[in-house]
## 1
Amino acid sequence: MTEQSPLWEVFVRARRGLSHTHVGSLHAPDAELALRNARDLYTRRQEGVSIWVVPASAITASSPDEKDAFFDPAADKVYRHPTFYEVPDGVAHL
Amino acid sequence: MRGPFDFALRLGDDALIAAQRLAEWSTRAPEMEEDIALANIALDQLGAARLLLTYAGELEGAGRDEDALAYLRDDREFRNCLLVELPNGDFAVTMAKLLFLSAYQLPLYTALSGCADERLAAIGAKARKESAYHLDHASLWVRRLGDGTAESHRRMQAAVDEIWPYSHEVFTPDPAAPVDPATLRADFDATVTGVLDEATLTLPRNAWVPSGGREGVHTEHLSYLLAEMQVLHRAHPGAKW
């Protein structure tokens, strides 16, 4: 193990009904070991009931350079938020 | 001495010495992830050791608690098998030791969980899940190293050859014990043979069978381990965190 093992991103589901959330990353030579390592690193205090590991290299991420083009256009489009509806009387859970 | 006290003491000492040896890997494992995995396994073993030694102290009825048993006995009074006190060696040796230990502890704790003694049954029920993970971890590495590169195969085979003779001691028959260790042998053999086959490793022929740990006759390695483990408690009796 003189060469560093590949990097894996770890997602943990805290309990049934919630979705998997990214909790961090780790090094492991393969998927099976990545899962074991994730169990030891990220769920030792009962943080989860399910783990996903994904090779970091398999993730395509947006670039900070593209931030303006990606996200700014949404800034002035308030009509995309569902705030223009009248909430009918008597609807408790909306 | 025989009987329930001796039985609990043997199991507790196995777990305690295994924990101390595994803890030696802390900050020295090949990778940070493995460092934490080995420390977790060491803590599992320590947890089992505490329960077993506490119970052994109660069975003895001489007022010795877990600390008195762990810190205030000399090597000749320890009843652990030789397997757990052997030095860690390289990573392959550590994994061979963990494979043989967990392949024995898993059927042992499973059988204990159904035994008549309620305390031992509860300890077995808790510890067997931990043992299942230890076995999983060791098997995974033995398979990878055995079926890996030419060098990793060579070193893993050398480790198996070196450690295998020490795996027999724990199965010495004891029909009066809550679980007769001899009855666990078939399960152990099936597990180990399966893992070694997958790992393209060969089981050495059974020849030399070192033993003596159960009678307190240990290798020279144990007293050094105990010196390090016990020095604080002996220098500062009753020291607490």
## 2
Amino acid sequence: MENSLLVSLSQQLAAYQSMDVIANNIANVSTPGYRREEQTFQEYVEQVSPPEGQDGPTRISFVQDAGIVRDLSEGAQQQTGAPFDLAIHGKGYFVVQTPNGERYTRNGHFALDTSGQIVDDSGNPLQGEGGAISITPDDGDIHIGADGTLSGKNGQLGKLRLVAFADEAALKKEGACAYSATEQPQPAASATVTQGALESSNVQPVVEISRMIDVMRAYQATATLTQSQEDLLRQAIDKLGQTPAS
Amino acid sequence: MRALSIAATGMLAQQTNVEVIANNLANMNTTGYKQQRAEFQDLLYQNVEQAGAQSSDTGTLLPSGIQLGAGVRTASVYRIVSQGSLTSTSNPYDLAINGMGYFRVTMPDGTDAYTRAGNFGLSPEGQIVTDKGYVVAPGIAIPANATGVLINAQGQVQASIPGQTAPASVGQLELTRFPNEAGLSAIGDNLFAETPSSGAPQSGVPGSTGYGTIQQGFLEGANVNAVEEMTSLITAQRAYEMNSKVITAADEMLQQTARLGGA
């Protein structure tokens, strides 16, 4: 009897966590370079032996969280017109140098800092092939080619460093659209850069909302099950605990 | 339940987004206005299970970990400093900057402010001033008897004086640029102030390397694209709505939980 309550509990905890993941996807629907995530679950099987001389289940399955899978498909490119808004097409990441080491991002919103370096929202310099890239007002309008070459009025200024990873799923999220890696990054061969655009988040609202309804209904169904089990228990206690009237 | 607070961060972010879009649309016809854009980032993650951790003694690795997100935040609201379209006004003191640079304006308290809105006029003393009466640096006075004023692309101000055949040169306008003009702080009235992130102002002659030229009789319109703003508005509104749906769903789940154990 208690087993069925525990099975329900494992499902309800799973639903809570799924809901958190869906909420995070929806909250980040406008975050450039965000990748949607999906919680996956696995069955956890416990062997039990029914009481002596009785029939009963010999195996009980619980729900267990297996992992969160990141959807690595590319988001749509959205035109912004800002000269340092960059979108990557294909497999690749921008490299920014933070105080905690290199971070990799697909959020291509950059700007200039006081010294003319191209930096991200937190002021971390974007890395070119020879380190940070500096621009002076004398360079005029900056053009960034598909291969990441920056050029101004006075010629080439450098080339963006784009990297790729053999195992993208192993990148660790650090918040602020940045990832850290344990693996050594490789130069991204197939990635191209578009200037004046940002890669939107790849969250598809319709998918998230239907997942949300799905999770909610599953939760409700289990809650109803838990309720009826509780009623059963209550009745059993009431009935069995009754002392004869006389 | 974390979903509630995550969705709340989403609603807050979209609210900021709508506010920025509203401000852009409200300033569609403001001279020299630069479009703004809200920029979002995901929040920190809680690591429950690290991807790449060993799942057995034989060295098999977990292909994906569990990192639970905490929502979204507004990272910045930045200005897109592209050139606005130039509209002809035929007013001799309407000046548009074609290219990079700002007019320097001396504020009443003696500090400097910068603007691209060139709808200037004359003060009672004959100085070129903004529509608020602040002097445009370096403070050029037009003689009272001048019959016409010509300001050329390089910012030279020449006045036609009756009785003189050649126009008299009365001053030279200057432009100011910044290493990072998106870092200027907007102080209202189309004016901007220097900040540590904009860098130090550098002054120069219009038309020289890195500075724009001056167009007399023109004004620079806002660089707001109405169609783009409207589509962004719809997207932001829908995203707001979706986040509120998450709150409803999470609330329903919590209600269900609260009802458990009731008779």
